[in-house]
Design goal:
single chain; about 300 residues; mainly alpha; 11 helices; globular
Length: about 300
C-alpha cells in the first residue's frame, strides 16, 4: 500500500473514532438518567436472595442483560434502517409491561399468600421434612427472580438503546453500531457492578467488625462496620420502594411520550403548577408521569385477569 493511501486510511480511522467518541458522549449523557431507575429496579428485584447466592444471581442477571443487548442492538439497527416508525409503539408496549409488573408487585406484596401460589402449611412438622415443597421450591423462586429481573432489564435496555439510537440517528452506520455497542456494554457493567456492591455491603460491614480486633484502627473499623450493617437493610428497603416507583415513572414516561396529547397535557400542567421553580417542576412531572404509569398498570392487570378468566 502506498504511503499516501496508508495515511488516508489512518485519517479515516481517526475520524471514525472521534465520531464514535462524540456520539457515545452525547448518548451517555442522555441515558444517564435511566441508570438510577435501572439500578433501583434491579436491586429491588434481587431482594431476599440467600447471602451466599447473591453474587451468583447478580452474575446470572448480568449475563441475561448482555443477551438482551445482543438481541436489541441488531434489532434496533434493522428497525432504524427499514421500519423506524415501529420504535415508539414497541417502546410503549414495553412501558405498559413495566407498569403491569409494578402493579403486580404491589398486589403480591399486599397479599403474601399469592406469592407462592400455595396454601400455607398448618402443621409445623412439615417444615422440617426434607421433601417440604417450600424447601424444594427455593431454586425455583431464585430462578423466577432471575427471569423477572431479566425481563425488566429487557425493557430498560430497550429504552437505553432507543435513546442512544435517537442520539446517533444522523451518524453513519458504523458509528451508530459502535455507539450502541459501547453504551450497551458500559451500562451493563456500571449497573450490575453497583448492584453487586449494594447487595454485598452487609458482608463488608461484617468483615470490618470481625477484623477490628486485629487492626490498629480497630475501634474505627468496628464503628464503620456496625454503621454499614445497620444501614444496609434500610437502604435495601428504600431501594425496594424507589424501584417500584421507578417502574411507574419509567413506564409512564414511555407511555406519555408516545401519546402526544398526553405528553403536552403533562408538560402544560407541570408548568402551570410549578411556575418557574425547577425542583418543583421536576417533582410534579415525575408525579404526573407516575400516575399515568399506575393507571396503565392497573388497566393492564385488569385486562390480563379478564383474558385469563375467559380462557379458563
Amino acid at each position: 500500500m502506498p504511503i499516501g493511501g496508508f495515511l488516508a486510511l489512518l485519517d479515516d480511522v481517526s475520524y471514525l473514532l472521534d465520531d464514535i467518541a462524540s456520539m457515545t458522549k452525547i448518548a451517555a449523557g442522555k441515558t444517564s438518567a435511566i441508570v438510577g431507575d435501572d439500578l433501583a429496579l434491579n436491586a429491588k428485584q434481587l431482594l431476599n436472595v440467600e447471602a451466599h447466592r447473591e453474587l451468583s444471581v447478580v452474575y446470572a442477571v448480568a449475563k441475561g442483560s448482555l443477551r438482551n443487548k445482543a438481541i436489541l442492538v441488531p434489532l434496533a439497527l434493522l428497525i432504524s434502517a427499514f421500519a423506524p416508525f415501529l420504535i415508539t409503539p414497541l417502546l410503549m408496549i414495553g412501558g405498559a409491561f413495566l407498569c403491569y409488573e409494578g402493579v403486580e408487585k404491589i398486589l403480591h406484596s399486599s397479599m403474601p399468600s399469592m406469592q407462592s401460589g400455595e396454601p400455607e402449611k398448618s402443621s409445623p412438622t412439615n417444615e422440617t421434612l426434607p421433601n417440604d415443597p417450600q424447601l424444594q421450591s427455593s431454586d425455583n423462586v431464585e430462578q423466577e427472580k432471575i427471569k423477572s429481573a431479566i425481563r425488566t432489564d429487557f425493557i430498560l435496555s430497550a429504552e437505553i438503546i432507543a435513546i442512544t439510537l435517537g442520539a446517533a440517528a444522523s451518524a453513519p452506520f458504523l458509528t451508530k453500531a459502535a455507539t450502541l455497542i459501547i453504551i450497551g456494554l458500559g451500562m451493563t457493567v456500571v449497573v450490575y457492578g453497583l448492584v453487586a456492591a449494594i447487595v454485598k455491603a452487609d458482608d463488608l460491614g461484617l468483615y470490618l467488625i470481625e477484623s477490628a480486633s486485629t487492626h490498629r484502627l480497630g475501634p474505627l473499623r468496628r464503628k464503620l462496620g456496625i454503621g454499614i450493617v445497620r444501614a444496609t437493610p434500610r437502604a435495601m428497603r428504600a431501594l425496594s420502594v424507589v424501584g417500584t416507583l421507578a417502574m411507574f415513572s419509567v413506564g409512564g414516561g414511555i407511555i406519555a411520550h408516545g401519546i402526544s396529547p398526553l405528553h403536552h397535557f403533562i408538560e402544560s400542567s407541570t408548568a402551570l403548577i410549578a411556575g418557574g421553580a425547577s425542583v418543583a417542576h421536576a417533582v410534579i412531572e415525575i408525579c404526573l408521569i407516575s400516575i399515568v404509569g399506575i393507571i396503565t398498570g392497573a388497566i393492564a392487570v385488569a385486562v390480563t385477569s379478564g383474558v385469563q378468566k375467559v380462557l379458563k
